[in-house]
Design goal:
The protein has 205 residues and is α/β, with parallel strands linked by helices. It contains nine helices and nine strands. It is 43% helix and 20% strand. The longest helix is centred in the C-terminal third of the chain and has 14 residues. The structure holds adenosine-5'-diphosphate and guanosine-5'-monophosphate.
């Protein structure tokens, strides 16, 4: 990333005390165990806050029914993704559950340039990479009320078979350990309360 773009990502990252909330463009990183509710929460946040935009990541994961290229993810082959790694096109990338996922520099920079705050729904390791490069990014870790409730939500989502769900649950210890390093932790019990709690955090951060 060149100096100009680094500056673009670093400056303006904190709202002025007492200013209209959320008006200052910044990076807001939301992570959670799979099924924890980060996608649902990010969509609610962007519906309720017109200045928020969702960062569409690139992935090598196969598309799920209903997912749209360029909306949910940019779906790439492993070769295309690896070419982008070589060309230094990612702010961060990670391998999660056997697939590559990455945040596209150009996408995020464009949104910041347009004056938007950018919501990054990414895994815990990618989130900590972002924090090390952009210390002003706000990191929020979403926790489910319990592992049983998480399993129930994953089953209810009907996007993964039981074997895939167990694979996702095996990552919980790593996610909880890394989630402790985040700026904030929020339990997603009642959805609306979790969203309001995050808005309060962002208004005061
Ligand atoms: P993630 O993006 O973290 O994998 P999702 O946002 O897809 O998780 O949520 C997983 C499932 O749980 C979805 O079916 C979603 O509708 C549901 N869900 C999310 N938040 C809640 C909540 N607070 N209460 C009940 N169900 C929820
Ligand atoms: P899913 O396959 O369920 O959409 O996502 C699996 C995991 O990959 C989730 O934890 C999600 O947050 C994470 N993820 C999605 N996009 C990115 C990204 O750009 N970078 C990183 N590091 N993780 C991502």
């Amino acid at each position: 990333m060149n100096d100009r773009n680094n500056t673009l990502l670093r400056k303006n990252s904190r709202p002025m005390a007492g200013s209209a909330k959320f008006d200052t463009p910044r990076l807001i990183v939301v992570s959670a165990p799979s099924g924890g509710g980060k996608t649902t929460i990010c969509h609610k946040l962007s519906q309720r806050n017109p200045n928020f935009r969702f960062s569409v990541s690139a992935t090598t994961r196969p598309r799920r029914p209903g997912e749209k290229d360029g909306v949910d993810y940019f779906f790439l082959s492993r070769e295309e993704f690896e070419r982008k790694i070589r060309d230094d096109e990612f702010l961060e990338y990670e391998e999660v559950f056997g697939n590559l996922y990455g945040t596209l520099k150009s996408y995020v920079q464009q949104l910041l340039r347009e004056g938007h705050s950018v919501l990054l729904d990414i895994d815990v390791k990618g989130a900590l990479q972002i924090k090390s490069k952009f210390p002003d990014a706000v990191l929020i870790f979403i926790l489910p009320p319990s592992t049983e409730e998480l399993r129930k939500r994953l089953l209810g989502r009907k996007t993964d078979d039981p074997q895939e769900i167990e694979k996702r649950l095996k990552r919980l210890p790593l996610e909880y350990a890394e989630g402790k390093k985040f700026d904030y932790q929020v339990v997603n019990d009642r959805l609306d309360e979790a969203v309001e709690r995050i808005e309060k955090i962002l208004a005061n951060h």
